[in-house]
Amino acid sequence: MIQFPRPAMLGVPAATHRRVAVRSIVWGERMEFLKHTEWPMWFGYAAVASSIITCAMKTMIPLRVVSMSCNALFIIYGFFGGIYPTLILNLILLPLNTVRLQQMRKLIQDVEAAASFGETSIDWLKPFMVRRTFRKGDIVFRKGDMADAMHYSVSGRYRLCEMGMDIPTGQVFGDLGLLAPGNRRTQTIECIEDGEVLTATYQQVKELYFQNPQFGFYFLRLTSERLFENIRRLEEEVRRKNEALAELGYKSA
Prior knowledge:
There is one protein chain. This protein has 253 residues and is an alpha+beta fold. The chain has two domains: 40-116; 123-246, Jelly Rolls. It is 57% helix and 13% strand. The protein has a four-stranded antiparallel sheet. Strand 4 (157-160) and strand 5 (165-167) form a beta hairpin. The longest helix is centred in the last third of the chain and has 40 residues, at 213-252. The protein starts with 13 loop residues before the first helix and ends with a helix.
């Protein structure tokens, strides 16, 4: 039998030989693990990693994108691994995340467009609002009440009691309470003709802001535009009343 020289005979220290032997064993065990690990498991590990990443994200749009990737990875893992509860769950979550992502992107685009062209419409906010019905004589809110929601008049007529001004259909009201000191109502709104309004709570507006700070910037810009529009309307109303009083005074003289 041919005997090969031992490592020590070749000038290799015994300690080095042992380290090489240990590394060979560890490497062999790793290869054995990989050999017995089914490939769908790697999609499962990637899905878990992406799920952890979503928990650390702060803005909604990137979170939705990563969540969709996570859903896709879990679908592959569940389908080829035969884990059907995971498969069914993520088959439901993937289209939901897709719809919400599209809604958020459209919301930002609509707000940007409205701000760019100086529009004060809130059509972009309607999908997040709830429909409410008011009857003639109902008080939508009173001056001094805590402001907790903004409204959009769909039908009917509503009046600013202190100013004697009517709010036309398609007009936003109550939104400035979000910016008022103490979040208190500055006017009383009465329904003078049966109608419907769309309502969005300030909590919803705040959630949209925190989900995407860019939305907050454009919402503030649109609210400022509406504030200046209200000031112009008030000045015009005061001017008309002064002219009417002057005309009455002239006739009396």
